[in-house]
Amino acid sequence: MTFMEERISRINHLLESLPYIKTFANKTIVIKYGGAAMTKPELKESFAKDVVLLKYIGMNPVIVHGGGPEINQILDILKLPIQFVKGHRVTDEKTMEVVEMVLSGKLNKQITSLINSKGGVAVGISGRDGNFALGEIQKIEVKDENGNIELFDVGLVGKIISVKTEFLNSLISSGIIPVISPVAEDKNGLALNINADTMAGEIASNLKAEKLILLTDTEGVLIQKKLANKLSEKEILSYIDKGEISGGMIPKVECCLAAIRSGVNKTHIIDGRVEHSLLLELFTDEGLGTLIEK
Predict the structure, then answer these.
(1) Distance of alpha carbon 24 from alpha carbon 59, whole angstroms
(2) In contact, 197 and 162? CB cutoff 8 Å
(3) Mind listing the pLDDT tens digit for each residue in 10-34?
(4) For 50-70, how does the pLDDT look when each residue is reduced to its tens digit (9 = 90+)?
């Protein structure tokens, strides 16, 4: 390829994104940020650049981040137990202190600072700021060995029951990129650990976002070790029942389904280990990962 042909090829790639830029202008995109994309320097850099670019071309990115590996490191140091039930962390009072310290105190500010360093205007908050996300204690449904449903108490783990969209919309309309840690509180001010995927889904639903995108450490949803490019609600429920979707992938697909039912147009589970995965999903014909839509 000659120098001029290479330059023309680059222009053609830019033009491929034009219809998508037009479609998504002024639309809200909720992005759950987690996994390797939060730990590897080159992936953190590419993610921050992607988010700033989205803002500059007229989209409204809203970031909800996780931080499980960092939480586990501190829990190990403190010799506190680590246990998960269907992708939800069992959270007692001491664990909750670590969760809030790591998510709201450390990681939230690091992400905010990195986005700002790339030319964005990001503000880090949790669900407790402005009391914009109200939660309540959630018990997890699990099947016993006989297939009967039981409710498992996972401690200070919550589900979101209301979101003050005017709070978030005021930030968005001011040109700010909200960066949200998945910590909320109940009506009595008790801090609750919220699954980051679930938090992202609830925020997307309440904002009536155009898209909900979950960054993961897999290609997407894998069925029998093969990537499913597209899934329906009926297929997802069947795969969960058969155990082909399990563990931490369950809250991801469930939050996608809940978001779609609440008016979010499309949801995506994509590979956050790929540099510029957000742009590849949003602005190329092939896309990336698994699409879950109505």
Answers:
(1) 6
(2) no
(3) 777 777 778 888 888 899 999 999 9
(4) 999 999 999 999 999 999 889
How many Å from the N-terminal Cα to the C-terminal Cα in the chain?
A: 42
**DSSP one-letter code for 107:** I
Distance, CA of 243 to CA of 79 (rounded, Å):
32
The CA–CA distances, whole Å, from 33 to 23, 144, 216 equal 23, 33, 8
Give the per-residue SS3 of 77-113: HCCCCCCEECCEECECHHHHHHHHHHHHHHHHHHHHH
What topology does CATH give the domain 26-293? Carbamate kinase (3.40.1160)
**Secondary structure of residue 21 in the 3-state scheme:** helix
The structural domains of the chain, with segments of one domain joined by +, span 26-293
Task: Find, among 54, 72, 276, the residue nearest to 177 by Cα.
Answer: 54
Provide the residue type at 230 as one letter.
K
Please, what sign has the CA dihedral across residues 176, 182, 185, 191? negative
Write the DSSP string, 146-159.
TS-EEEEEEEEEEE
Per-residue exposure over 232-269, b if at least 16 CB sit within 10 Å of its own CB, e if not: eeebbeebbeeebbeebbbbbbbbbbbbbeeebebbbb
Helical packing angle, 196-207 and 249-261, nearest 10° = 10
Structure tokens at 111: 């992400």
What DSSP character marks residue 268? E
pTM (whole model) above 0.85? yes
Q: Judge whether 207 and 165 are in contact, CB under 8 Å.
A: yes
